[in-house]
Write a structure and sequence with these properties.
Layout lengths: L1 E5 L28 E5 L3 H5 L2 E3 L4 E3 L14 H14 L3 E2 L10 E8 L3 E2 L6 H4 L14 E3 L8 E2 L3 E8 L9 E11 L6 H16 L8
Parallel strand pairs: 3-5, 3-6, 4-6, 8-11
Antiparallel strand pairs: 1-2, 2-11, 6-10, 7-9, 10-11
Length: 213
């Protein structure tokens, strides 16, 4: 079953699969919480045990101006996400040239409305991360089977888990196994960074299926 889970913080992503949410979701205003998207039906998520997280948080071009949170919070954001995966029993791969991780977790900050799941330009945005196997810049993120279009609005911190083991060589797509986002994190203030960190915590609370024995 593909699951959409609503938590207790600000709206950021609308994503669902038919039959999993009790009512139809027409717009972002239907929800008032952090949303996590997961494909819990496929073996890749259940069998994944190792992860890597590049040391880069990309900031979209429109998230570079004055009054917008900058890269000074990147280390805390990445450390918080890494800590949750380690606490859940995942093993981090730090040298991806020696051992390929099962998944890679990418993090970005956006200040404009984005729709859909596929994302182009990602291959170089995270500093030409060396852990992509045979995937190249002409690949995109693949839409999870059964998922409907989602959108995330201005002021969003997005986390996306990509399955490195099962890229579709025909479509040149890397599958998304899990995604989450937190809105309202762009203003350059300590309170907004704190909100982002609390939102990360909540996204993992909403994702108990990520725990590993």
């Amino acid at each position: 079953m593909r699951t959409i889970v609503a938590g207790a913080l600000a709206v950021c992503v609308v994503a669902a699969a038919s039959g999993c949410y009790p009512d139809e979701i027409d717009s972002v205003s239907d929800l008032s919480s952090i949303i996590t998207l997961v494909d819990t039906s496929t073996p890749p998520l259940h069998t994944a045990r190792t992860f890597a997280i590049p040391d880069t948080v990309i900031h979209s071009l429109r998230a570079q101006g004055a009054g917008v949170i900058g890269h000074e919070g990147d280390a805390q954001v990445l450390a918080r996400i890494r800590g949750h995966f380690l606490q859940l029993g995942w093993r981090e791969i730090t040298d991806v040239t020696v051992e390929r991780p099962d998944v890679v977790v990418l993090v970005g900050v956006f200040e404009q409305t984005h729709t859909g799941v596929a994302y182009t330009g990602w291959w170089g945005d995270w500093g030409y991360w060396p852990g992509w196997p045979a995937y190249g810049p002409d690949w995109t993120w693949g839409v999870p089977v059964g998922a409907v279009e989602f959108s995330f609005e201005s002021g969003t911190l997005a986390m996306v888990m990509l399955d490195l083991r099962n890229g579709n060589t025909t479509l040149k797509e890397v599958p998304i196994l899990w995604a989450g986002a937190i809105q309202g994190v762009l203003a350059a203030s300590t309170s907004n960074l704190d909100r982002a960190l609390r939102g990360i915590d909540q996204a993992f609370v909403q994702s108990p299926y990520l725990e590993r024995p």
